[in-house]
Structures are given as structure tokens and as C-alpha cells.
Design goal:
The chain is α/β, with parallel strands linked by helices. The chain is 39% helix and 13% strand. The strands form three sheets. The chain has a six-stranded mixed beta sheet, with helices on both faces. It has a four-stranded parallel beta sheet with strand order 7-6-5-8, with helices on both faces. A two-stranded antiparallel ribbon has the order 1-2. Helix 5 packs parallel to helix 6, helix 8 packs across helix 9 and helix 9 crosses helix 11. It comes from Desulfurococcus amylolyticus DSM 16532. Keywords: Amino-acid biosynthesis, Lyase, Pyridoxal phosphate, Threonine biosynthesis. GO terms for molecular function: L-serine ammonia-lyase activity; pyridoxal phosphate binding; threonine deaminase activity; threonine synthase activity.
């Protein structure tokens, strides 16, 4: 393991979580690719069950004895024909991460994280999260018998909080501060002063969870019959998912199973886009400015005002010749409706941001109609019922009368019955 800031090296056997230099560097995991290539090949891989843990050799958990799993991964890659026709794309795919056990891609991260907590022997874990990561940690913590403390912002959606409470987590809503993320402040106190296992969905405080999402890329390559897509659209908050997605393509390149990268596209909302701003400014990856004000977006899962893994995320964009896109709340909402009405995929705002980014990229002539495009749909629509109710509207109420039904169907829906 190597610190992303000071370069200090540690061994997994030392069971490290953060760099001893306390420089807020992420402990990037360095794999022995020669050993991996000798121990597994594509034929062996094809005989395993199609879930995240088929890629065990590429993950940091030392033994299957420590794995804590709820059946995460193995999500479908859907050919979006109707949506593709509407957008003028011939090869559009949706990687539907809503199918994971708690309804979001965070299950991949937290399965790895909690498995490592079991290996390390922790009994209490703590997280700072806007909702999805905390809900996932609570679920896997419940499975493993680890007590979970969750600090969420005061504006977190109740749908996610309800999940946390049912899983038995001890949840604390924290009033937001413009100076710093108060949930991270509280998490650090419990980790540094009380010895809790930190498990946020960014790598500075937990380098292991970022490895889980890289299995998304590995599945995509397999599902495309070992073809690498041309572009992959990634909803981006702390840039941990973006980093993980890059790492998956990197690992397959390193063992010789593929020989190129797709363009990675980071998508952020207008009301909070410090990472895309940094990309536009060609910022030094180690000096990204945090967002100066509280986040203002319906995409509550993308509200990280500081991209903790932004250094790795920027390097991923630079390496793959990728780019960043900023989208409005209206564009996100329109994408939610398109996903549901054209492809039957119900996504929360953060989950639909990737499609909004694709539409914006098409408008900006960044996408060719013949390219193979993959959009990550990262979280289920029922994750955010408050926003769903506000934006979906109410159906008309009628008496059990055919005449009234026909009249209202025409007036409300514009159809004749």
C-alpha cells in the first residue's frame, strides 16, 4: 500500500487504515499483477458465479473466510434500445446498479469494507454519508454483527434514514456548516479518539472500499464479451466511484485481458461541482478547491463539497482522455423520467445523473452515434421518496364511471380511451 501524497509504503499485514503521516493521503493498494495472471485466467473466471466476488484475486480481502456478502454485484448491463433511438445512439447500455441488495452501487464498496473490518477485528464502525453509503454499511454491519454509527447531513432524505434505522444503525443528523463537512468531522472524532472503524465511501479514511466498485468495470467488459466501451458516464461526488471504475479497467489492462481504456466522463450537478470545476481548470490533482457553499441539488448522493478522491479521479480523466459534465436539476429530473418511461429503470436523482450527463455531452458533440456508450445508473428511485413525491405529481381521482374515465383520460393524459 502506498500513500497518494507522501509515497510512504505499508504492507496489508500491518492492517493500515490511514497514512501514519496524517497528511490525508489515500493508501492506494498495489497488486502483484504477475501473480494474479499466473493464478487466474479468463476461462477460470467464466466458470465462477456471476457476482462481485468472482474477482477475488483483484480485491484486498486476504481470504474468503472473511467475506461479508449479501449477493452484491452481477448487475445487468441493459441494451437501451428505446432510449438509444430517442438520443440517436446505436449502442447505448445501462449498467443497472439499482439491483444491488440495498438499492445502490455502494453495496460493492461496503461488502469489501466490512469484510476488511472483520479481518481487522473491529466491532464498531462509523461513517459520514448523505445516505446510500451509510445504509449499505448498516446492512453489511448487521450481517457481520458490527455496530454502526452514522452521521448524516440534516438535509438527508428520510427514505435513506429509514433504511439506516431498520438496519439497526445509530443515526445522527448533523447541522450543516459552511466551513467544513460536519459529518466528516464527527466521523474523524470517533475514529481518531475512540478507535471506531472508519468506513466512508471515500478512500482517505478507508482505502479498501474503493476497490469494490472497480468490479463494475470488470463486469461491463465481460458483459460486452471482452470489448471495452468507448465512453462510460459516471455520477460523481467524492470521486470514489470514478476512481474505482478506472481501477477496474486498469487491473484488466495490467493482466493483459484488455488493451485500452474507455473515456471516463464525470457528471456533477450545477449546485455542487468542485470536481468538474477542477477538471475544467486543469487543476493540480493534489490541490482541488472545495465547493464554497452548501450543496444545492436534488441529487443528494452527489453532495460532497470536497472530492476526497479527486486526485485519483482527475488522474483517471487525464489518463483516459475523459472529461467532466455539469447538469441542472431539471436535466436530472428529465433523465429520471426517461429512464423509467423508456427503459423501465427507476433511478433516484443521483442515479440518473449519468444519463443527464450523456444528453449534455451529445448536445456538446462529445459523443458519436456509433460509439459504445455505458451509463451507470447508481441508485434506486425509492431511495429518495421525498423528492420522488414532489416531482412525480398526483394522479387524477375519478368516480367509477366510464364517461368520467374517458373525460379525465383525455384532459389529464391527452389520450382517448
Amino acid at each position: 500500500m502506498k500513500c497518494s501524497r507522501c509515497g510512504r509504503r505499508l504492507l496489508l499485514s500491518e492492517k493500515p487504515l490511514t497514512c501514519p503521516s496524517k497528511d490525508l493521503g489515500r493508501l492506494d493498494i498495489v497488486y502483484d499483477y504477475e501473480a494474479i495472471a499466473e493464478s487466474i485466467n479468463r476461462d477460470v473466471l467464466s466458470q465462477r458465479s456471476f457476482n462481485m466476488w468472482r474477482y477475488m484475486e483483484f480485491l484486498p480481502v486476504p481470504s474468503r473466510d472473511y467475506i461479508v456478502s449479501l449477493g452484491e454485484g452481477g448487475t445487468p448491463l441493459l441494451k437501451a434500445r428505446r432510449l438509444g433511438e430517442k438520443l440517436g445512439l446505436r449502442n447505448l447500455y445501462l449498467k443497472d446498479e439499482t439491483r444491488n441488495p440495498t438499492g445502490s452501487f455502494k453495496d460493492r464498496a461496503m461488502s469489501v469494507s466490512v469484510s476488511m473490518a472483520v479481518y481487522f477485528g473491529f466491532k464498531k464502525a462509523v461513517i459520514a454519508s448523505s445516505g446510500n453509503a451509510a445504509a449499505s454499511l448498516a446492512a453489511y454491519g448487521a450481517k457481520a454483527g458490527i455496530e454502526v454509527y452514522a452521521f448524516v447531513p440534516d438535509f438527508a432524505g428520510y427514505g435513506k434514514i429509514a433504511q439506516l434505522l431498520y438496519y439497526g444503525a445509530k443515526v445522527f443528523k448533523v447541522r450543516w456548516s459552511e466551513a467544513e463537512d460536519p459529518t466528516v468531522k464527527m466521523m474523524r472524532i470517533l475514529y481518531e479518539e475512540h478507535g471506531f472503524y472508519p468506513s466512508p465511501s471515500f478512500g482517505v479514511f478507508n482505502p479498501y472500499q474503493v476497490e469494490g466498485p472497480k468490479t463494475i468495470s470488470m463486469e461491463i467488459v465481460e458483459q460486452l464479451k471482452w470489448m471495452v466501451p468507448d465512453q462510460v458516464f459516471v455520477p460523481t461526488g467524492a470521486a470514489s466511484l470514478l476512481t474505482g471504475v478506472f481501477n477496474g479497467f486498469r487491473d484488466f489492462n495490467m493482466v493483459g485481458w484488455i488493451n485500452r481504456y474507455p473515456k471516463l466522463v464525470a457528471v456533477q450537478p450545477e449546485g455542487n461541482h468542485p470536481f468538474v470545476r477542477a477538471w475544467r481548470e486543469r487543476a493540480d490533482p493534489m490541490n482541488i478547491r472545495p465547493w464554497e457553499k452548501p450543496p444545492d441539488t436534488i441529487a443528494t448522493g452527489l453532495e460532497d463539497t470536497y472530492p476526497w478522491d479527486g486526485d485519483a479521479g482527475l488522474k483517471a480523466l487525464y489518463t483516459t482522455n475523459g472529461y467532466g459534465v455539469v447538469v441542472s436539476d431539471k436535466e436530472i429530473l428529465d433523465s429520471m423520467k426517461m429512464l423509467a418511461s423508456l427503459e423501465g429503470v427507476f433511478a433516484e436523482p443521483s442515479g440518473a445523473a449519468g444519463l443527464a450527463g450523456l444528453i449534455k455531452a451529445i448536445e456538446e458533440k462529445q459523443v458519436d452515434r456509433d460509439e459504445v456508450i455505458v451509463v451507470l445508473v447508481t441508485g434506486h428511485g425509492l431511495k429518495d421518496p421525498d423528492i420522488i413525491r414532489k416531482t412525480a405529481g398526483e394522479p387524477p381521482l375519478i368516480n367509477p364511471s366510464v364517461e368520467e374515465f374517458r373525460k379525465v383520460a383525455r384532459e389529464f393524459y391527452g389520450v382517448l380511451a
